[in-house]
Amino acid sequence: MIHVVHHPAYVTEAPARSTYRWGKNGAIRDLLRAKGDAVAWTEPELIPPIWLEAVHDPDYVAEVLEARVPPDKTRRIGFPITEQVAHRARAVPGGTWAAALLALEHGFAANTAGGSHHALANTGAGYCVFNDLAVAAVRLVEQGIVGRVAIVDCDVHQGDGTAALTAGRPDIVTYSIHAEKNFPARKARSTLDVGLPDGVDDDGYLAELAATLTPFLDEHRPDFILYQAGVDPFVEDRLGRLSLTREGLIARENLIADLALARRLPVASTVGGGYGDDVMAIAERHVTAIQTLGERLSHRNPAEAEA
Ligand SMILES: [Zn+2]
Question: What angle do CA 62, 18, 186 make, to 5 degrees?
Fold first, then answer.
């Protein structure tokens, strides 16, 4: 049984002027629904604004929630913030938060949206409105639920917003493995950044991931992993610069799962990047990630949770 968090607002129609394809969240839902009883569904609550304000500038939070984001920020985000989009922007961090709580109980849970790692304190950016990863991590530690969270970001783009929003906190550590020449041009400083050259293949990627994430987890000893499982390192991704195959992405999820299992760390995953014309193919890659992680990490019975 894999615990999956989904909110109907994720599938909100994209504003007409957007080039961003929101249909993939609906496709992810449909592919997971087809798995029947193998998936346990949870609909999250909207995140309370106070937790958005714990990482974002309250003025920016108000601009989004009141759907009056100025044009310069709209351009940085990549789509206009309508009332529907604002509603979605509260549902998504609510989903990552819900997935985190489910992961603590069941070993693993996935949000079918989120991974909005480019969102900064006073503006969204790169198709990200609020940074659900930072919001959930800050809430986990500030409510005393866990001592230290590691945000592990395998999207092909650097998790610059997440790094900036959590910088200097001893209770949150950030790891980002990405294509160095990709967006954002100006990188932030994660606790550990692994910038890869263009064209890295499965073997090169997996070796670098194992060689850097293993010591990172051992040095910082987190109690929990929030995992941004972007699938844009895929070879055919429109915005990626790396050359991972489908098998390489599956091996990546198995590696993440094994590192977490060896340290008895719960994992909550979000989606993330995945770009191209074939929305179903992209959704399938996200679902494969969720399924691979879920099969490895979900507790099969309560006794396993105690082990
Ligand atoms: Zn990306």
Answer: 70
Q: Is the pLDDT of residue 303 over 70?
A: no
Sign of the Cα torsion 228, 31, 240, 82 reads negative
pLDDT of residue 31: 96
Spacing, Cα 187 to ligand 1 middle (Å) = 13
Longest CA span, the chain: 53
Q: Which pTM does this prediction carry?
A: 0.95
In the reported structure, the alpha carbon of residue 69 is separated from the centroid of ligand 1 by a whole-number distance in angstroms of 23
Contacts of 106 (CB under 8 A, 6+ apart): 1, 3, 298, 299, 305
CB 226 within 8 A of CB 270: yes
Q: Residue range 114-124: average pLDDT? A: 98
Q: Terminus-to-terminus CA distance in the chain, angstroms?
A: 18
Nearest alpha carbon to residue 156 among 52, 260, 278, 285: 285
Distance 241 CA to ligand 1 centre (A): 10
